Amino acid sequence: MATICMPCDSSSFSSPKPAVDDDVALVRACKRGDVCAFEELVKRHEKKLFRVAQHVTQNREDAQDVVQDAFLNAFRKLDQFQENAQFSTWLVRITINQSLMKVRKTHRKREVAIDQNLQTETGELSFEPADWAPSPEERYQASELRGILLKALRKLQPTLSLVFVLRDIEGMSTEQTSEALEISQVAVKTRLMRARLQLRERLNNWFSRSVKDLDSTAEMRQ
What we know:
By secondary structure, this protein is mainly α.
C-alpha cells in the first residue's frame, strides 16, 4: 500500500531527533514540519485502518483508496486533533466516515446506510498470526474456524458487526469505540453484547449441526 510520505534520510538533519515512542509525540513532531513523523504514523496504523475500511466497503481496492484518503484527510486536518483523545481512535473515525462515503459513491443508484447488510469476503478480515509455527492440522482447523466466524459475523447487522470488529478483533476499548463511531459508551456495550450473543447462538447452532453430521457419518460407516 503506497504511503503519502517520501522516504526520509536521517542524514539530512543537522542534529539527532529525540526518540518518539507514542503517537502524540509523533503528531507534535509532524505539526512542527517533520514529514518523517507522519510517515511513521502511517506505518503504525495503516494495517488496522485497512481492516476496518475493508469491513465497511467489502472491497480490497476500495479499502486501499479509503486508507489513502483517510491519511490525506488526517494530514490536512492535523491541527484539529485534540490530544485528549487517542490518535488511533481519531484515525479510525476518519476511516469509517471515508469508507461510508466510498460506499455511497460506488452505489449512487441506491440508498446506502450503515444499517444496510454488508457482506465480508471470507479470509479478507485477517487476524494476527500466532507467534509459533502451527502444524498443518492446526492451520487447517484455525482457517476453518476463522471461516465459520466470518460467515456468522457477516450475518449480523452492520451496526453490531462493526462494534464487534473494533472491540473484539481490533482490541479497541469501549471509550475508543464510542469515539470512533460517535455513539455513547452505553450503546457500544449494548451492541457488543447483542453481537456476542448472536454470534454465540449462530456458532452453537453450527457446531451442533456439525456434531450431528459427524455422528450420522460414523453410524453409516459402522
